[in-house]
Amino acid sequence: MTPIALAGRRVVVMGLGLHGGGVAMVRFLCQRGARVLATDLRDAETLAPSLAQLADLDVEFVLGEHRRADFAGADLVIRNPAVPEESPYLAAARASGVPVEMEMGLFFAECEPDRIVGVTGTRGKTTTATFIWHALRSAGRKAELAGNMRISAVGLLAGLDPEAVVVLELSSWQLEGLVQHQISPARAVVTNLLDDHLDRYPSRDAYAAAKQTIVAFQRPGDLAVLNSENAYTTAFAESAPGRVAWFSAADPVAGWSRAQIGGEHNRANLAAASRVLVDLGLSEREIAVAVASFKGVPYRQETVARIDGVSWVNDTTSTTPDAAIAALEGLSPPFVWIAGGSEKHLDFESLAELAGRRREQIRAVVMLPGAASERLGRSLAGQELHPVATMPDAVRTAAALARPGDTVLLSPACASFGLFLNEFDRGDQFNDAVRAIAEPAAGGDAAGG
Questions:
Q1: pLDDT (tens digit, 9 = 90+) per residue, 32-54?
Q2: DSSP class of residue 248?
Q3: How far apart are CA 116 and CA 111, in angstroms?
Q4: In the chain, where does the domain assigned CATH 3.40.1190.10 lie?
Q5: Residue 7, Cβ neighbours under 10 Å: how many?
Q6: How far is CA 197 from CA 44, 91, 163, 206, 353, in A?
Q7: Cβ burial 186-209 (10 Å sphere, 16+ → b, else e)
Q8: Does residue 82 contact residue 60 with C-beta atoms inside 8 Å?
Q9: Closest CA to 281 of 146, 161, 121, 143
Q10: 44, 194, 215, 337: least buried by Cβ within 10 Å?
């Protein structure tokens, strides 16, 4: 791809956001000499953390609304991954002949696909991508990590070492930015494909099609690492243009006996990562050393405290029923389970069946507020439910219910919008509330995790 011209052009950034990607995009565009207008439906008060990071730049902001004229009069529009393709404002831009790009289109235009390892999937993509990066660095290789983890890809470009491997965690939304360029990373991993984002996509097949972009435009000789135990990912192999390598949770992983993380799901993640690492030239010994030193990823089944014999586990990135199932199956019961949140229109049947089978292992369910919580609560008939209004309420309620030996598990199975800025804000509020109850217990066996 040819780098996209930016100097002197009027560029509209649609969606400033709070994850950091919008801020990094605005800064990147300004560094390239663009005249930038950033617009977001949220107001200045909500976006204050992002705005503060851009105070030194000459940027025009339109907040609390979008204006069609801004889109129709731009030279280029950059859409945030959270903005649907069908937005009428994007339609206004296209009707006026204004091109629409996304971050990954800009990044792939300046970074050769041969240097890129892309990782996607409904669950496990952050852990898999982070471990690939960790293992490369552990083996003395130059590597960078970015993507759907609050690390901007375009933010890497200014100082990117020409020899570095770039590991990208790619959501389905981010992959949409590669379709118009018909480009995929030279090495791609699909961890799995489960129900998710049905509030954004009309069907599971449409969601799968977005994910398939990661391998759809590979070249002969490129590598697709696919889950042999998932129907959708096995189907991806039929149209993969390059080599295919399979993995599963049953595969041996070098150094697994010394791993600091556990669970079949993490074994599958590291098995997938190992396929890529071998292709990049790492030895079994180098992979084993990396496995032994890898501590996992925050917000994903992360033990944040042990207080009076109770383990507190932050799994805030569990925004789907399948993710909550993985946590309930992979961690040690009995549980006081903090769940609920906003709607993604996903089916709770499998989660409810698991909870029913393990009713004696789930001491109580503390239910956060949100549009999906009532539906989740109905599906958990027979469980002891405790509705709460805030995260501190949830933590205090869970602390009162838990007994020594229990696990208090934040694994919501739902999105975070409404009560929280995002799932990371939800996780941070959980950690803060746990710290608040830990302080009075400091004379006991309170300990960080």
A1: 999 999 999 999 999 999 999 99
A2: -
A3: 8
A4: 105-293
A5: 9
A6: 28, 22, 36, 10, 22
A7: bbbbbbbbbbbbbebbeeeeebbb
A8: no
A9: 143
A10: 44
Contact predicate 408/338, CB 8 Å: yes
CA distance 10 to 54: 17
Give the tokens for residue 444.
């006991």
DSSP-assigned states of every residue in 35-49: EEEEEESS-TTTTHH
Per residue in 174-225, pLDDT tens?
999 999 999 999 999 999 998 666 667 778 889 899 999 999 999 999 999 9
Selection from 174, 173, 118, 113 nearest residue 145 by Cα = 118
Write out the residue limits of the CATH 3.40.50.720 domain(s) in the chain.
10-101
User: Which tens digits make up the pLDDT trace of 52-96?
Assistant: 999 999 999 999 999 999 999 999 999 999 899 999 999 999 999
What is residue 230's DSSP assignment? -
Read off the tokens for 264: 């079949």
388-403 burial: b if 16+ Cβ within 10 Å, else e: beebbbbbbbbbebbe
Separation of alpha carbons 50 and 63, rounded Å: 12
Q: How many residues does the chain have?
A: 449
Tokens of 448: 């960080």
Is the alpha carbon torsion for 114, 116, 117, 123 positive or negative? Answer: negative
Give the predicted TM-score (pTM) of the model.
0.86
Indicate the SS3 state at residue 338.
strand
Assigned token pair, 423: 């799932």
The structure tokens 């944040």 sit at 304
- Whether cis (ω within 30° of 0) applies to the bond prior to 202 is no
For 302-448, CATH gives 3.90.190.20
Within the chain, all domains assigned CATH 3.90.190.20 are found at 302-448
The yes/no answer on whether domain 10-101 falls in CATH 2.40.50.140 is: no
Which residue's structure tokens are 């079949």? Answer: 264
Q: Which CATH class is domain 105-293?
A: alpha beta
In this structure, which amino acid lies at residue 402? A
Residue in 277, 276, 240 with CA at minimum distance from that of residue 139: 277
Q: Cα(390)–Cα(395) distance, rounded to whole angstroms? A: 9
